[in-house]
Amino acid sequence: MERFNKFEFARLLNIAKGQRSINQYGLQSEVDPGYISRLLRGLVDSPPLPPTIKKLADKAHNEITYEDLMVAAGYLERGNQSIPATPSVDEMARVPIYGEVRTGEPLLVLEQIIGYDYVPAKDVKGGEYFFVRVKGDSMIGARIQDGDLVLVRKQPTLEDGQIGLVIVDGKPMIKKFYRQGNLAILKPENAAYQPIVAPLPEVTIVGEVVEAKIKFRGRK
Asked: Are 189 and 139 in contact, with CB atoms under 8 Å apart?
């Protein structure tokens, strides 16, 4: 695999976007507009997976091709159609992305799909999964940063110490979960925040956070 030329990729992607807004391009290609925005600004240090590039190319304007984007991504040399061993579309699963969930100041979530991302199908086998984008810094000790996408597996229970997406008083939040008698202790991973204590019947467990797609320093 050649080196990812993120600035050439950004240039080609901007041409492919044409006169459309980023949101329009994201909606048509079924790629997260926030991810497209970061690609356009050269803020992503690793290339999109080939299935994502295929979706961007399929909706590209101005004669930008799949090969153009694959060359800039480092998967191909110009004129070489052989693609290195990477997960194929059939080996990837499309996972919906819902709106933001605040980790320090909760915000309503799971009302609208704002995009999709792809993960290896084997990683989401046998369950229902979705992404949410984090807003806030209360879980930085668990390496969950503001702007990260977290992958959630829907399930009604959590074990002590697991990080979960829960709802308290109608407000979703991401916290480390503990039981203490009939109480739920929802602990942040940032000393600037206090744990939230609530009766177990008042806490709805949406699912376990199983992965965070890290937003590297410097991204907006």
From this structure: yes
Q: Tens of pLDDT along 189-199?
A: 999 999 999 99
Instruction: With CA atoms as reference, report the closest residue to 44 among 199, 220, 204.
Output: 220
Helix ranges, 18-154 (H): 22-29, 33-40, 50-58, 66-73
> Per the residue annotation, which of 175, 176, 187, 215 is the catalytic one?
175
Percent of the chain with pLDDT over 90: 47
- Domain-wise residue ranges, the chain: 6-73, 91-213
Q: What is the pLDDT of residues 168-213, one digit of tens each?
A: 988 889 999 999 999 999 999 999 999 999 999 999 999 999 988 7
175 catalytically annotated: yes
**Domain 6-73 = CATH 1.10.260.40:** yes
Token digits of residue 212 = 């965070």
| Residue 75 near residue 82, CB atoms below 8 Å | no
The answer to whether 164 and 173 have CB atoms below 8 angstroms apart is no
Judge whether 206 and 152 are in contact, CB under 8 Å: yes
Nearest-CA neighbor of 203 among 179, 211, 108?
179
Catalytic hit among 55, 138, 176, 215: 138
Check: CB of residue 209 under 8 Å from CB of residue 32: no
| CA–CA distance, 170 with 103 (Å, rounded to integer) | 14
Q: How many Cβ atoms sit within 10 Å of the Cβ of residue 63?
A: 8
Token pair recorded at residue 16: 């492919």
For 91-213, CATH gives 2.10.109.10
